[in-house]
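Quick one, tokens below. Sequence please?
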């Protein structure tokens, strides 16, 4: 697991600033205890004057935006996020390193998932089948260029081979992509999902695992295919969040565990040691406590309805899995996307007008 010291120091610096502000206003600032989860809205620079290295910030930073739906570590302690062609890169120190909008209809406007290959490269899933054929690519974030991988042609393994019909989520391990791919199974009313390891030079695919997905799973995600999230730990274990189960696989695809759930938008984000946050299922009672640290009044107002999910009958609840088992968490249900980076998780919540990126730091006493 990465060192949590940097995240703790950053959280403490942010708390000190908030404490000073609230001291002046006569308020007592929230202070997470050693057994509390800290939830901190992330601010970023939303607009610049100029472009490239000469660009300068325009206006104050913000911590409230539209909802982000694609999120990835950048491989260097920061993160990338994107939604509908709008991209944001925040570094390990919280500095906004990039913020840009792509050309409508361009390849970078149709990114469905991404994962870090190196500090300057992302493996991205292009296409939504309705507008652009699905494709795996490597995105060089310094040159802003895409290198498309060879695809899998339809029918080269028989009449029921649909090639790269549609991709789901993607992760990276040991220089290869681990990707979810869907395959129709006519005349039956279901798909197969496949977990493939993809060589990032040749595009060669190795099937690691597969299973059925009912078309009526995850009705809240329609009209798209039922979503499946995937992530990988340092040992190569694969974590699959499906509409019906939380699954852990060995590096060769052997199933280690399976826990049932019902989820419209299942997600999983894994720390290097295998500690994972999962979204799916109904909220459960929990002794865990989340403390909202800092943030603007608008960001706090957007997050507060998600602080006590069991009281709001929300779905796609959050839980932690670690060596000690499964632990329900009462906050941040119904997230859009999540990723582990620099000792904490970054979680995207909300939509147009109430979207917030939240840094979720585990208890320091754990």
């Amino acid at each position: 697991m990465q060192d949590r010291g940097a995240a703790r120091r950053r959280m403490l610096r942010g708390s000190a600033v908030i404490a000073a502000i609230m001291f002046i206003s006569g308020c007592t600032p929230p202070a997470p205890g050693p057994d509390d989860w800290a939830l901190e809205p992330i601010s970023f620079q939303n607009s610049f004057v100029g472009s490239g290295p000469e660009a300068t910030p325009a206006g104050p930073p913000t911590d409230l935006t539209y909802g982000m739906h694609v999120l990835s570590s950048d491989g260097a302690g920061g993160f990338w996020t994107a939604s509908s062609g709008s991209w944001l890169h925040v570094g390990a120190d919280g500095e906004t390193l990039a913020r840009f909008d792509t050309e409508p209809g361009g390849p970078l406007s149709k990114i469905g998932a991404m994962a870090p290959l190196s500090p300057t490269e992302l493996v991205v899933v292009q296409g939504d089948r309705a507008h652009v054929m699905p494709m795996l690519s490597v995105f060089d974030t310094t040159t802003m260029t895409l290198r498309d991988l060879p695809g899998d042609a339809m029918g080269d393994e028989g009449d029921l081979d649909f090639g790269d019909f549609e991709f789901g989520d993607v992760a990276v391990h040991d220089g290869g992509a681990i990707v979810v791919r869907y395959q129709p199974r006519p005349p039956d009313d279901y798909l197969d999902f496949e977990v493939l390891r993809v060589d990032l030079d040749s595009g060669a695919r190795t099937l690691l695992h597969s299973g059925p997905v009912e078309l009526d799973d995850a009705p809240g995600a329609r009209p798209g295919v039922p979503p499946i999230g995937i992530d990988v730990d340092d040992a190569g274990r694969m974590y699959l969040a499906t509409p019906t189960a939380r699954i852990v696989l060995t590096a060769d695809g052997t199933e280690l565990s399976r826990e049932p759930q019902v989820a419209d938008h299942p997600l999983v984000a894994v720390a290097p040691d295998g500690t994972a946050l999962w979204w799916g299922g109904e909220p459960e009672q929990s002794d865990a406590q989340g403390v909202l640290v800092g943030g603007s009044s608008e960001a706090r107002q957007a997050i507060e309805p998600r602080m006590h999910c069991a009281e709001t009958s929300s779905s796609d609840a959050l839980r932690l899995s670690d060596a000690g088992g499964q632990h329900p968490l009462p906050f941040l249900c119904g997230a859009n996307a999540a990723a582990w980076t620099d000792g904490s998780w970054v979680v995207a919540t909300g939509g147009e007008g109430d979207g917030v990126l939240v840094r979720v730091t585990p208890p320091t006493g754990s």
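The two ends are 14 Å apart (CA to CA). Confidence is low (pLDDT under 50) at residues 1-29.
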